[in-house]
Write a structure and sequence with these properties.
Order of helices and strands: EEEEHEHEHEHHHHEHEHH
Pfam families: Abhydrolase_1 (PF00561)
InterPro entries: AB_hydrolase (IPR050471), AB_hydrolase_1 (IPR000073), AB_hydrolase_fold (IPR029058)
Number of domains: 1
GO molecular function: hydrolase activity
CATH class: Alpha Beta
Shape: globular
Helix content: 25-40%
Protein name: Alpha/beta hydrolase
Distance between the termini: 38 Å
Keywords: Hydrolase
């Protein structure tokens, strides 16, 4: 990676051009990207299963960065961040807090997608003073319906993708309707827009560790989400196969200060399929007094 230490430098508003940076804390060197204006509360993006820096949709990141400072980062043992990937969501949450504090932030907004949304829920409970607002997308609560099946679904769709010479995300993130297929192809094309300074792909060892963490999350006893007092925006597609959409409704019902957005004819990657609408809704939510 093309490492730049620290947070300084020119303001960048395009994810395609955001330099790779590193920060060291707790014996770990975290890889991250930092873009957008330096005013207001920064938004930290928590990534999905197998996700590295290059797996964030640039339309979503750029949309946020037009108005807000955005930080994306690699979890421990993932991409260009060193260390051994934890096998629990709770350990991943500790690492996320370590990273956020290493950048000197005392208050952040968090956008957690899929596994990242699980990590975000834990951070909001363990370090509530650190979190101003939460956006939880394509995710579900501990013990949520069908979450323990993510490993089986991921394996099935990875094999299906191999046989059809496609990316597994085409099956895992999008519906098989004409709209879903088209949205998936457009999303996957956007992920390739950055051509220089790309991140390392996740290793098989780290991927398996993340699957174990998600499986454990799916088997956990439900948590008391009423303790999360921050405003929360919950969003998903109406036909999420990976983290069934019922979980988004469940989150919104159990979080005391939440609102729910469900996108039609969309799956796990609904926020990428409807990126314009999602960015507009998310920015309005974050900028609310």
């Amino acid at each position: 990676m093309n490492d730049v230490q620290g947070v300084g430098g020119d303001v960048v508003t395009s994810y395609k051009l955001a330099p790779n940076r590193t920060v060291t804390a707790g014996g770990l060197t975290f890889a991250y990207r930092d873009l957008g204006p330096r005013t207001g509360t920064p938004v930290v993006f928590f990534n999905h299963l197998a996700g590295v820096l290059d797996n964030w949709d640039p339309r979503v990141v750029d949309g946020f960065a037009a108005k807000r400072r955005v930080i994306t980062f690699d979890n421990r043992g993932v991409g260009a961040t060193n260390g051994s990937t934890p096998k629990t969501i709770q350990e991943m949450a500790k690492d996320a807090v370590t990273f956020i504090r290493a950048l000197g932030f005392e208050l952040v907004d968090i956008h957690g997608f899929s596994m990242g949304g699980m990590i975000a829920q834990v951070v909001a409970q363990t370090d509530p003073q650190l979190v101003r607002r939460l956006i939880l997308t394509g995710t579900g609560p501990a013990g949520g319906e069908g979450i323990k099946n993510v490993t089986r679904l991921s394996n099935i769709d990875t094999v299906r993708a191999l046989f059809t010479l496609q990316d597994p995300k085409q099956f895992l993130f999008f519906t098989r309707t004409a709209n879903g297929r088209r949205a998936g192809k457009e999303f996957l094309a956007r992920l390739k827009e950055r051509t220089e300074g790309r991140d390392k792909a996740i290793s098989l060892t780290s991927y398996v560790s993340q699957l174990k963490a998600i499986h454990r999350w799916g088997l956990e006893r439900p948590q008391d989400l009423s303790v999360i007092r921050q405003p929360v925006l919950v969003a998903n597609g109406e036909s999420d196969r990976m983290v069934p959409s019922k979980n988004s409704h469940d989150l919104a019902r159990r979080l005391p200060n939440s609102e729910l957005v469900i996108y039609p004819d969309a799956g796990h990657g609904g926020i990428f399929q409807f990126h314009r609408q999602f960015v507009e809704t998310a920015l309005e939510f974050l900028e609310r007094q």
